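USER:
Try writing one entry.

ASSISTANT:
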Amino acid sequence: MVKNSIVPKSFLLLLLTSLVLSQAQPQPWSPLQAPKEIAKKLNHGPNSLLLASTDFGHTVHKIPLAVLNPTSINDISELIKFSKSLPNPFTIAARGNGHSLHGQAMAYNGIVINMRELNSHRNGSGIVVSWKAPLGYYADVGGEQTWIDVLHATLERGLTPLSWTNYLYLTIGGTLSNAGISGRSFRFGPQISNVHELDVVTGNGDIITCSAKNNSELFFAVLGGLGQFGIITRARIPLVSAPTRGKWLQMLYSDFLTFSKDQENLISFNKSKQNSVPDYIGGSLLLNHPPLDLSFYPVSDQPKITSLVTRFGIIYVLELVKYYNNESQKIVDKEIQEIIRGLNFLPTFIYEKDASYEQFLNRVYTEELALRSQGLWDRPHPWLDLFVPKSRVSDFIEGVFKGILLKQNLTTGRTQVYPMNRSKWDGRMSAITPDEDVFYVVSLLYTSEFDQLKAYQTQNQQILQFCKDAGIQIKQYLSRKETLEQWVEHFGPKWKLFEERKAAFDPKHILSPGQRIFIKQ
């Protein structure tokens, strides 16, 4: 569970009031009614409830009735079965590291499962690296494990997963329930496209092993399924040989069309030119809203970069990485030159660092430590993550970046923009993308003070309204909808299948109420 969270005094008062009322009003069920082995693992003390009522977003607070600290997968199964046996089942939410943004891992008057507790009872089996034909190397990973732990465990064997998130202190079950994306996804797809097999506890309480060949309907439902069909307790992740280092480049552009054309060219590759394909493609903005984060660049160049931003209002940063190891070290510079040949960044505004593989993958943690030292990590994060179809991305840039963001001084944080290939996503899974071959990830990763939160939320609504009025068919990632109708629109043609899978795997609508799909929270 997340520690040392900072929450407003108003929420602490709400928690105290809720606890008093819960004692005064009859509940449809009591933790004391649970099977003995489950009841003794339920914690309903104020501190535990407070932690389960907050998340990284700090925008939603929902108080559960209790928190389950499971010592086995069977505890999760028995809890779900107990709920299902009641005339009015209580809801259940699985919580990993609490990095949700909008209360998705909360369960008002229900039970939150502290998935991280399982790690204390794995006896070293939380991450197991193996090999067998025809799979090759793979890792069996508990759903409660974090990706940073997976990185460390696999690097010890000289191995690595193919697909990552930009932030590694997330649980395997959490990212696979959404998608798991980064600038690596253009080449190998999201993390949900890189899974051999899963163990899942369904909303019926069944513990099921599934894959693309066995129990495939559950497998495809759960991946990107927002926790609606089951709780992931194990994932089998394919592994490959790990590089040791990477050439990390950033190039500056003053024009979005030039910037996006170069990005799209870089993600368009064929097998005959594998060596000249980047391993990571990202993008971000430098908005004319001081202070600018120029820490990547030499101090001597920072004044002229600041001048560029002031002159153009927005500077677009194309980021790419090419990995290498001892064998390829001699040719990596040649490969870099081949990759950047023909790119139209601003002359001389190209910057390079050499980083270890782990250093690059774990780069956001360095930023986290800096923010924590300033007391800025445990603040509201009114993030907005969108998938924008390539055909309308220029309209989006004009209307949102220039028409909204530049005019409002509310950009404390990062804005990311980079393209993906839809061919790397599996349409059988629950995750939703725009219906175009190439689409852009646009992430507004902002931090606000509690008294500024409303302004950021208003800005996000302005962006969504602009897209609606302009007919830009965006899809929200890590979203929270307010109505069932909005979810139906989000899933589009997949909604009927989504409903059918819910009826099959969680017919009592027990799981993941914080998503607000089938249950109002």
In short: The longest strand covers residues 314-324. Residues 1-5, 19-25 have pLDDT under 50 and may be disordered. The longest helix spans residues 453-470.
